[in-house]
């Protein structure tokens, strides 16, 4: 069960026609030059014999063990998991070098005003109205509700499922949201689209997701939930794509 949640194993078989050399024996008649008599003689010869060569291609995609809790835990279990993560198992002394130390206690964030013309889009306005309720909420790995706080994909999933529009897809990870979204080119990205990043930690596919709000800005669950410019060397180097939930 854990294997299926953490990995995607794909196999396919292709065939090729290849040739091998076989040595065979045959019989031929030769004539004795002195007597003129003919007699049989065995000889060896090589032939190229075709055969089917089977190639099995195996690909194993690792979605990182951190994706597993979302798929195997209930909402209550995820809440407990988020609490354990936020308190570092009540043993922060054992995790002094963890990248998550102090992540859960930052509540200050920079203010940002979305241009009024962007908010004229009623769908986008509904998304932002829900998303801005959680500005300053701390990052909690595995979190997916106001009760637990959020991680990046938990935040985006919750906002879209609870903004009063037509979406109802439950809790998805960043890669799950990417696969659910229609691809949008950077030139056609608009406020309300999702923006995906890769390799922000050791996992394949999308590893981080935010809500694009226009003007090279996104609202995402960072440290804490806040508005952030995507026009920085860090975010440019990790940019994967834009996507649109339909």
Can you give a write-up of this model?
The protein has 246 residues and is α+β, with helices and mostly antiparallel strands. The protein has one domain: endopeptidase domain like (from Nostoc punctiforme) (endopeptidase fold (from Nostoc punctiforme), Alpha-Beta Complex), CATH 3.90.1720. The protein has helices at residues 2-6, 68-72, 75-86, 116-119, 122-131, 152-161, 174-180, 233-238, and strands at 7-31, 38-62, 144-145, 149-150, 182-184, 194-198, 206-214, 217-221, 225-229, 239-244. A 6-stranded antiparallel β-sheet has the order 5-10-6-7-8-9. It has a two-stranded antiparallel sheet with strand order 1-2. Strands 3-4 form a two-stranded antiparallel ribbon. A hairpin with a 3-residue loop joins strand 3 and strand 4 (149-150). Helix 5 packs across helix 6 (152-161). The radius of gyration is 31 Å and the shape is elongated.
């Amino acid at each position: 069960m854990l294997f299926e949640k953490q990995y995607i194993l794909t196999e396919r078989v292709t065939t090729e026609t290849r040739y091998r050399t076989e040595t065979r024996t045959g019989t031929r008649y030769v004539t004795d030059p002195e007597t003129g008599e003919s007699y049989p003689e065995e000889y060896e010869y090589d032939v190229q014999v075709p055969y089917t060569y089977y190639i099995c291609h195996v690909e194993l995609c690792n979605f990182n063990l951190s994706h597993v809790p979302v798929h195997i835990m209930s909402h209550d279990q995820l809440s407990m998991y988020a609490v354990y993560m936020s308190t570092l198992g009540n043993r922060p002394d054992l995790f002094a070098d963890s990248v998550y130390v102090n992540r859960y206690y930052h509540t200050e964030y920079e203010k940002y005003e979305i241009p009024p013309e962007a908010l004229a889009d009623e769908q986008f306005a509904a998304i932002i109205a829900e998303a801005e309720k959680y500005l300053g909420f701390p990052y909690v790995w595995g979190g997916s509700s106001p009760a637990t706080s959020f991680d990046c994909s938990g935040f985006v999933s919750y906002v879209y499922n609870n903004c009063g529009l037509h979406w109802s897809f439950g809790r998805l990870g960043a890669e799950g949201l990417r696969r659910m979204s229609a691809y949008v080119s950077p030139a056609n990205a608009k406020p309300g689209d999702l923006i995906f990043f890769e390799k922000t930690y050791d996992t394949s596919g999308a590893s981080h997701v935010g809500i694009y709000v226009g003007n090279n800005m996104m609202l995402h669950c960072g440290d804490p939930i806040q508005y952030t410019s995507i026009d920085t060397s860090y975010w440019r180097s990790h940019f994967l794509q834009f996507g649109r939930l339909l």
